[in-house]
Amino acid sequence: MAETRICIICGTEITRGSFSRKPERTACSRRCAGSLPKLSGKNRKWKNTELGGGRWKIGGYIAVAKSMLDDYEIELAGNSKLHYVLEHRLVMAKKIERRIETGEVVRHLNGDKADNRPENLVLGSHQENTLDHVSLRNELSLWKNIALTLLMILSSKND
Ligand SMILES: [Zn+2]
User: How far apart are CA 128 and CA 46, in angstroms?
Assistant: First the structure.
């Protein structure tokens, strides 16, 4: 019996006797298959990047295939030629009910690039984004110093 699916990239209906790929990786053509998000370099493995339902993890961020979006979401996503959108930018666009401009950056408050809960996202500039990383690094080195101090105290007691 033939099965009908939708190309995850362009949305075209495909009817085939059987599909070799999972629904979230089904593409109508070689061209569309080439547009599926991938990682580059040695980590180029599908199984590490696929989240199912037309979602992928790319460089720590979550990307969603445009064919999974409704009309309003596509409008918010803007007219980039990419066939997928970064989920955190889309979540923010929905939150503020407008498109995210090119210079604007959506930041993850807890530093987890895959945590796209609206409350974990803030809109900022590239500059602020850099500051976040710096303060996180400072915080980490602070904890490292505390840990080292504790170790020194503990080891001196044993002497
Ligand atoms: Zn297609």
Answer: 33
**Side chain identity, residue 154:** L
| Cβ neighbours of residue 31 closer than 8 Å, sequence gap 6 or more | none
Per-residue pLDDT of the chain in tens (159 residues, 90 and over written 9): 788 888 877 778 889 998 888 777 788 888 888 877 765 555 455 444 778 788 888 778 898 988 889 999 999 998 777 788 889 999 999 999 999 887 788 999 999 989 999 999 999 866 665 655 555 566 666 667 667 776 776 676 655
As a whole number of angstroms, the distance between CA 80 and CA 10 comes to 14
Q: pTM of the prediction?
A: 0.63
| CB neighbourhood size of 11 (10 A) | 14
Task: Give DSSP secondary structure letters for 64-124.
Answer: EEGGGS-HHHHHHH-S-S-SEEEHHHHHHHHHHTSPPPTT-EEEETTS-TT---GGGEEEE
- 4: CA distance to ligand 1 center in Å? 13
Tell me, in angstroms, the distance from the centre of ligand 1 to residue 71's CA: 18
Q: Which residue has the tokens 């020194």?
A: 152
Cα 90 to middle of ligand 1, angstroms: 22
